[in-house]
Amino acid sequence: MKKRWLVYALLLLLSVGLFGCAGSGETAATQPVPVFPAQLVWGEGHHRTPSFTCTPGNGDALEISYTNAAQVPCWVDVYEEGVFQTTRVSRMEVAPGNPAGERLSVPNPGGNTYYLHFTAADGGLIQGDLTAVQRNP
């Protein structure tokens, strides 16, 4: 009888230990949520992404990351589309040749609709990798 209780107690401890350690440390609330798929940006002079809408509750910040693969700097402008007007809410300059790229954050995106506009410094080629996610900072 004592052996049976000992076996049950050990099994209980093992199961609690296994399930308690199974998490990766990041909860669903802290993992970034893409607002549109990662994409290669390509254009001549300037490029505009399709509009995308953030989802309330998916994160307290809209995070834009861009790596410039062209030969000249470019600017990335974030525009918020409103009912009566569109407003530029943020801007970053991205130098070429930096494998880490640049990142900017727009706080409290809520359920707002945005688009990104890229402009090459010399009006030439725009080329690079773009990601846009909602996350909790």
Keywords, separated by commas or semicolons:
137 residues, mainly beta, five-stranded antiparallel β-sheet, four-stranded antiparallel β-sheet, globular
Topology diagram in text:
Blueprint: H1 2-20, E1 33-44, E2 46-48, E3 52-53, E4 61-68, E5 74-81, E6 86-94, E7 102-107, E8 113-120, E9 125-135
Antiparallel strand pairs: 1-9, 2-8, 3-8, 4-7, 4-9, 5-6, 5-8
pLDDT averaged over residues: 81
Helix content: 10-25%
Q: What shape does the CA trace take?
A: globular
The low-pLDDT segments are 2-28
Order of helices and strands: HEEEEEEEEE
Q: Helix segment count? A: 1
Number of strand segments: 9
Instruction: Give the biggest sheet.
Output: 5 strands, antiparallel
Q: Strand content of the residues, in percent?
A: over 45%
Radius of gyration: 23 Å
Structural class: mainly beta
The span between the termini is 53 Å
Q: What's the multimeric state?
A: single chain
